[in-house]
Design goal:
Elements (H helix, E strand, L loop, with lengths): L1 E10 L2 E6 L5 E4 L2 H15 L5 E9 L2 E8 L2 H14 L6 H21 L8
Antiparallel strand pairs: 1-2, 1-5, 2-3, 4-5
Length: about 120
């Protein structure tokens, strides 16, 4: 799974997006076209699965755009919970539920620290 974060800025009639880490970049006349180009740029670097993206304005002339590739793995993780619920009855089922809760908490903790703040 690849996560690509781009800082986007408008200068005149053109928007540019540059990767926070790496050499990926693109430019276009509108935010819509820029998003499409940045997704294609990210896909040229990592084409391992489904694509999710998020575009958020920080100011009227700047934004953050994130592309997540391989998001199908996250769907499989959610689906895996149903398989754990179907486990045979006995002492193994409560242990599986506890393990599932621990993994869920770890996942939440890891998503909180992205290394930058939009309010700095």
């Amino acid at each position: 799974m690849g996560v690509f974060t781009f800082v986007c800025r408008s200068s005149g009639n053109e928007w540019t997006g540059k990767s926070v880490s790496g050499d990926l970049e693109a430019s276009a006349g509108s935010t819509f076209d820029l998003q499409r180009k940045l997704v294609q740029t990210a896909l040229s670097s990592d084409s391992s699965g489904g694509v999710q993206s998020s575009f958020s304005y920080v100011t009227p002339t700047s934004a953050v755009f994130q592309v997540i590739i391989g998001a199908a793995a996250a769907t499989a993780y959610v689906g895996g919970g149903g398989a754990a619920a179907a486990a045979p009855a006995g002492g193994a089922a409560p242990a599986a539920e506890e393990k599932k809760e621990e993994k869920k908490e770890e996942k939440e903790d890891s998503d909180d620290d992205l290394g930058f703040s939009l309010f700095d």
